[in-house]
């Protein structure tokens, strides 16, 4: 673990793997050190955003070093169900890459729960981990200029849902009408770190 200053109001914790990030995030979210106002997880880092008037960066760093990462059982237990129509443009390509039939792809994506590891790329986009490892596929060799909002995709170990229309290179296997990002909702993001996500087949 390395703990580094990040600007004048944050510290950045670097760790070896995503599971450690999630464990540290769950523990610190349950008992944040004094002066910590936000936690921002990523693939190998956790940023602690500080209130400059209330936080001592050295004390925060010491508290992080003394923290025992939480276990999966201690993480946030909120479950979000996402209805999906599995008719994505890359569904058949994913079948070729994995050796699975379309029905097996759908079963693999829906029968194993996913966990929101962190957010990124755009507001409301959550990187989901923990699904069936048979669905690990590379990104597309050529990204699309336009991916529609609600597209459900796979890339590497991750699954995700595009909140807005944007360019993208993930393998698209389906679509959902569930709003990922809504500024009139509190909080706006449907996918937040630690939330469990279950995909449910709606139709084809």
How would you explain this protein's 3D organization?
The protein is α+β, with helices and mostly antiparallel strands and 204 residues long. The protein folds into 2 domains: 2-73, Gyrase A, domain 2; 79-203, Cyclophilin (Beta Barrel). Helix content is 20%, strand content 33%. The protein is built from 4 helices and 13 strands. The chain has helices spanning 18-30, 57-65, 91-98, 102-111, and strands spanning 2-5, 10-14, 36-41, 45-50, 79-85, 114-119, 126-129, 144-147, 151-155, 158-161, 166-168, 171-175, 196-203. The strands form 4 sheets. A 4-stranded antiparallel beta sheet has the order 1-2-4-3, covered by helices on one side. Strands 5-13-6-7 form a 4-stranded mixed beta sheet, with helices on one face. It has a 3-stranded antiparallel beta sheet with strand order 10-9-12. A hairpin with a 4-residue loop joins β1 and β2. The longest helix is centred in the N-terminal third of the chain and has 13 residues, at 18-30. The radius of gyration is 18 Å and the shape is elongated. The relative contact order is 0.18.
């Amino acid at each position: 673990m390395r703990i580094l200053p990040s600007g004048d109001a944050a510290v950045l914790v670097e760790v070896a793997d995503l599971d450690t990030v999630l464990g540290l995030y769950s523990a610190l979210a349950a008992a944040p050190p004094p002066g910590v106002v936000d936690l921002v997880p990523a693939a190998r880092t956790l940023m602690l955003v500080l209130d400059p008037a209330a936080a001592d960066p050295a004390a925060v760093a010491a508290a992080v070093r003394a923290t025992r990462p939480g276990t999966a059982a201690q993480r946030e237990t909120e479950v979000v169900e996402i209805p999906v129509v599995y008719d994505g443009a890359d569904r058949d390509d994913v079948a070729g890459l994995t050796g699975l039939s379309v029905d097996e792809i759908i079963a693999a994506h829906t029968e194993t729960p996913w966990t929101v590891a962190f957010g990124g790329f755009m507001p409301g986009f959550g990187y989901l981990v923990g699904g069936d490892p048979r669905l690990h596929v590379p990104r597309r060799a050529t990204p699309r200029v336009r991916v529609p909002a609600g597209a459900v995709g796979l890339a590497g170990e991750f699954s995700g849902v595009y909140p807005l229309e944007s360019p993208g290179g993930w393998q698209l296997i389906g679509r959902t009408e569930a709003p990922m990002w809504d500024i009139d909702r509190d909080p706006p993001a449907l996918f937040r770190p630690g939330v469990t996500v279950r995909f449910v087949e709606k139709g084809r």
